[in-house]
């Protein structure tokens, strides 16, 4: 069985930093039988209402995820339904 490819997005919001967040996300993705194929790290003072990570980072995410031939994108922060829809449409 071929493993699906997942592109990871780790977001730091405000001043709180969780140094192992990206590594934990990779382990969670692997435990669900996905292969992590890339990582985008973003820092935000506050979430962007439309995309959480901002339109520029979403554009970068789309390019990186397509180049890595990822089937899914996994965030380490909860997205609203509108943010998820906007990101899906943008990438």
Automatic annotation (TrEMBL):
<dbReference type="Pfam" id="PF13167">
    <property type="entry name" value="GTP-bdg_N"/>
</dbReference>
<dbReference type="GO" id="GO:0005525">
    <property type="term" value="F:GTP binding"/>
</dbReference>
<dbReference type="GO" id="GO:0005737">
    <property type="term" value="C:cytoplasm"/>
</dbReference>
<protein>
    <submittedName>
        <fullName>GTP-binding proten HflX</fullName>
    </submittedName>
</protein>
<feature type="domain" description="GTPase HflX N-terminal">
    <location>
        <begin position="21"/>
        <end position="90"/>
    </location>
</feature>
<dbReference type="InterPro" id="IPR025121">
    <property type="entry name" value="GTPase_HflX_N"/>
</dbReference>
<dbReference type="InterPro" id="IPR016496">
    <property type="entry name" value="GTPase_HflX"/>
</dbReference>
<dbReference type="GO" id="GO:0043022">
    <property type="term" value="F:ribosome binding"/>
</dbReference>
<dbReference type="InterPro" id="IPR042108">
    <property type="entry name" value="GTPase_HflX_N_sf"/>
</dbReference>
């Amino acid at each position: 069985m071929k493993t699906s490819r997942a592109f990871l997005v780790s977001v730091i919001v405000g001043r709180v930093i969780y140094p192992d967040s990206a590594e934990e996300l990779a382990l969670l993705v692997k435990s669900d039988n996905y292969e992590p194929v890339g990582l985008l790290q973003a820092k935000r003072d506050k979430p962007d209402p439309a995309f959480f990570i901002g339109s520029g980072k979403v554009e970068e995410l789309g390019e990186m995820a397509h180049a890595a031939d990822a089937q899914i994108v996994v965030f380490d922060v909860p997205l609203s339904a509108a943010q998820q829809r906007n990101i899906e449409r943008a990438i």
